[in-house]
Every structure is written in C-alpha cells, then in structure tokens.
Amino acid sequence: MVQVNTPYPATPVLTGFLKEHGVEAHQADLSLEVALRLFTPETVDAALARIPSGRVPRKLKPFVTLSRDYRENVAPVVRFLQGAAPELAWRFAHPGSLPEGPHFRELTPDEESDPEETLLALCGQQGIEARAKIRASLFLDDLAGYLAEALDRDFAFARYAEHLAVAAPSFDPILRRLKGKPSYIDEILDGLVAEQLRRFKPDFVGVTVPFPGTVYGAFRIAQAVRRLAPEVKTLLGGGYVNSELRDLTDERVFDYFDFISYDEGFAPLLGILGLGPRVRTRVRGTTPADVANGRCAGVSPAPCKVRVSDYSDLDLGRYLSLVETSNLMHRLWSDGRWIKVQLASGCYWHRCRFCDVALDYIGRYAMPEPRQAVDAMLAMRDATGVGAFHFTDEAVPPSLCRAISDELIARGEKIVWWGNIRFDKGFTPDIAARMAEAGCIAVTGGLECACDRLLKLMNKGVTCGGARAVCEAFADTGVLVHAYLMYDYPSETLAETIGALDFVRHLFADGCIQSAFWHRFALTVHSPLAADPPEGLVPGRPANPRHGRFALNEIPYTYAGGKAGEEIGKALSLATYNYMLGRGLDMPAKVWFKT
Ligand code: SF4
To answer: Does residue 401 contact residue 431 with C-beta atoms inside 8 Å?
Structure first.
C-alpha cells in the first residue's frame, strides 16, 4: 500500500522508458485497487459477518452500532474523494452527516477542545469543500481502522504488513505469512493478480517496492504469479531494494523473484529483457559483492534527463484525494493529483554524515538540461491533463530551480509545482521570487537538529540563521515551507533540543514555515557516520539469521552519552502539532518538556 491520491512514480516512468525501447509494457496500481475494493458496502458486510455477535470487541463497538451509516456512506465518500461528486461537499461539510470515530477526536489538540469548533476554526477560511474533504477523509481513516480490526490487523491505509519489513534481518516472518492462511485482504490481492494476468498475459512481471509497507504485498503478488503462471519471469526493484536489500544472502527470496534490480531500473530492465548488457541485477547464485563489482557490475549511467512517464493504463479519476489536516502545506502529500518527477539524479551536496550518501540514488549527482526537463514536464501535462508537479529529488539545487523557472516563465506556461530543497543560501530572495512566479507553491527541506553546533557536526552545510533567511525569502513570496527535523543526534543535549524547538516556534510564529515533522536520528549502514563513527558512538553488529540475511539498513548503536527517551519525541510532536494549528506560539518551548 502507498498513498492513494496519485500514482507512485516508478511504474509510469519505467513503462514510458520501456515503450521508448519498443517493449510492449503495461502497468497496474494494485495498491489503489486494493483500497477501492476495501472501501465498499460489500467489505463492510464482510467485516460485520466476521465479528462474533454477543462478543463484539470494544474497539469495534462504534462500528457495529453505526454499521448502517458506514455502509450507506462509504460509496458516496469514495466518489466524492475521487472528485466525481463535488455536490456532496454540501452534505459532508455538515456536522453529523457522517459517523465520527477515533480519527475525528484526534483532530483536536487536547481533550477539552470540541472537535467541531476546532474544525470550524481551522477551516473557516477554506470553505465548504475543505471541511467536507476533511470529514470524508477522517471517515475513511476510521473505517480503515475498523476493517483492519475485523479483517486483517496488518492493514493500514498507506502500508500493509509493514512490521514484517521494517528492520527485518530475516525473511522468515514474511515467509511464514506467505505460507499461512490468506486474510481477506490477501484474497483481494491474489484475485487482482489473477485479473491482471488474464488482462495483459505478460511474459514478465516487475514489482516496485518503495517502502517497507509494500514489501509483503510484493512477495504476495510474486507468489500468485508463480502459482497461476509459472512460466512468467518476475523482478523486484525499488527504493526498499536499493537501500535495504543490498546485503541479501537469503536465497529463498529467489523462489519468488527471478531477478532483483538495483538502483535506477532502466539499464537493469533492458539487460533482463535481452536489450542490453545485464547490469546491476541479482539472480539466484549471485552475492552482494557481485552487484558492487564483478559479474553484476554497473555501467556508466546514461546522461541525466527527465523522462516522460507514461500513465496510459492508470485512470487518474480513480485516485482518492485525502485531507486529514487543515494545514495547507501538509495537505500536499495526500490531496490532489501530482505528476511526480525526478529532475536531477542524486543530491548535489551528498555530504551529510547521517545520510545514505554511499548509495547511488544520493551519492551520484547529475543534473538534466533545463530546457529538456521543461519539455518532458509539458509532454506529461499534455498527455494527462494534470499541470501539477511534485519534484521528488533529494534536493533540487538553486541553479536548477532558477533555470527551470526561467524556462517556464519564458514560455508563458502556467503550471504549479513543489519539491524538496536544501536550505542553501543560494536560494536568495530573487530566486525565491522567480520560482514563485514560475508556479512554485511549496518547498520542503531538512533543518535537522536546528542547532548550529549539531548542523556543523553533521556537515549539513547550512546554519540556523542561513536556513531562516531562506525560509523568509520563500515566505515573502507566498511559497509554503515544510521543515524536516531531527532529534537525538549523537551528543545532542536536552538543552539543545529545547533550543531547537524554540527556534522552530519562532519560525512558525513569524510565518517563515507552515509545517514541520520531527523524526528520531537513526544510524544507517550506508552513512559516513557508520563508516567512521565519532568517539562514543558504537555501531552494533547486524544480526546474521540462519538462512542468510534479508534486509539491512538501520543498525543498532550505543552512545556513551546516552539517548533521548520516548517522551522527548512525543513532546516535540505535540508542540509542533499545536504550532501547525497556530497554538502555543507565545509560550517558551520548555513548557512542553517535563524538565
Ligand atoms: S540529507 Fe539531504 S542534503 Fe544531506 S546529503 Fe542527504 S539528501 Fe543531500
């Protein structure tokens, strides 16, 4: 499962690439299809049928009590969130029009606040449609939770059986589940695979796994292909493979997939299909070292260019726009259809000590020619009718942002776009204004520990003052800003964490950023920090399971100075959640911590 508002970009870009090379290629988004089969009156009935009457679990009581409301509303809500029935906004904006479960209560910043008042206060200026979308989305979130409880506890909206693939040294848990009794959702997925095999009659099936919450589903798909069409060859690729499966030694994975492709899939796919040299591809009997050197070695990468993704098998009108927050910046990830585009390959900075810079998708930087990039974007807009782009780069450099903006302005094209940057001082007010004029509506970037000592230690290449100036430049032009934040970096003190939150509070209060998210520092095997740890940081030894290794990325570690407790992360999240709602901005950051 991945986000259901817009297609994940890997399959459209690979489909377009294969067609360019004369291969008959098709794609299907089984993540969306599973969601659309789950959110139906029939699945509500199936869930109800599995709940023992007389012994209704506490969590399911509201669902059972309001089952008629859930059943009657699920299809109209799906249609509304697909954009097919805008008139329903008048109904769903109204309090009490939909049953309200746990996700409605989470909307309020504290237990005393009234959910309705909060929603009205937050969305007052955004109108009927925004309120209706939030209600309809929370309705689906609630329903997803109830369906998971009744049908398959491993299900969540944008991830399925994720725990099996997060920090998973052994393949055993995935294997056990694959060989066990299929759940209701497993059966949906198996049925979808059978349908796609009948529809396309492929010789070859590739599955992309961007995140841990897609991994079990990918193996389930491969298992169904093996059973229904054993002659079909199977391939696994994607972000999870690139960062987690580089050290794979468990050969049982090849019972499901004939090939594993590393890094950008273009050259490996051509090699597997016999249209080029076999590169960056594992098959049974090969070792991790074979990918880095020897018989599975890479080739010189092709010149960087923006590829024209092919969306022809995907019906964009079936995707669901979800809005789970009134925060405008936060909505961009789940609301609306975005053509996702990678402009440059890799990160132009590639020097942060905590980052996976040893991996190709970060460490190997190449920039496309701006005119070609804009040509490709406009070709995709003309083919899909969607003139909204999300640049998924690790960090688009200021020079490329400037050049793309100049090109769009010169051509008089009216599109909107947003993407990931570094808070690099190269983003001057002049460039920010130019980007806004060219249709940039938002930027996201890493402010990490928001503390100059730690930013220097992690070699981020920015300072708090410099980052603030960049945020101000964007804010002055009306471009929204989201900051990625980090806590518990080795040697970080509580005083520094509180100072960082205070810095962030001021950014919110002064309108320099509109949203932010904290995540805890994690030590990964592909980072400079793991290769050359500072004094006091001791990386742990990765587990070595009996049948060989499955995934390896994050590694355990100890730090002589200790680590932050769980309560620090909770305090940071709660404070930032309030800041995003415009609350608590006049209180010093330390009030969120029990010090
Ligand atoms: S953290 Fe971001 S800016 Fe730093 S090297 Fe990684 S991708 Fe580049």
So the answer is: yes
Q: Please state, in angstroms and as integers, the Cα–Cα distance from residue 62 to each residue in 59, 68, 104, 142, 211, following that order.
A: 7, 11, 13, 10, 32
Task: Judge whether residue 548 has pLDDT over 60.
Answer: yes
Binned at pLDDT 50, 70 and 90, residue 116 comes out as: low
Contact (CB, 8 A) for 401 and 374 = no
Please determine, for residue 22, whether its predicted confidence score (pLDDT) is greater than 70: yes
- Quick one: which atom of ligand 1 is closest to the CA of 448? 1
Classify 410 as helix, strand or coil.
helix
Helix axes 429-437 and 464-476, enclosed angle (nearest 10): 40
Give me the mean pLDDT over the 283-291 stretch. 89
Residue 420 Cα to ligand 1 middle (Å): 10
Mean pLDDT in residue range 584-588: 96
Best residue among 343, 350, 447, 449 to mutate for probing ligand 1, ranked by most atoms within 8 Å of CB: 350
Average pLDDT, rounded, for the chain: 93
| Atom 6, ligand 1: residue with shortest CA distance | 355
Task: pLDDT band for 503, please (50, 70, 90 cuts).
Answer: very high
- Read off the pLDDT of each residue in 73-83 and give the average, rounded to a whole number: 98
Closest atom, ligand 1, to C-alpha of 362: 7
DSSP 8-state class, residue 60: G
- Any residues with Cβ below 6 Å from ligand 1, and which? 347, 349-352, 355, 357, 362, 394-395, 422, 446
Distance 401 CA to ligand 1 centre (A): 17
Long-range contacts of 105-108 (CB under 8 A, 24+ apart): 107/134, 107/138
State the angle between helix axes of 494-509 and 464-476 in degrees (0 to 180), rounded to the nearest 10: 20
pLDDT, mean of residues 230-248: 97
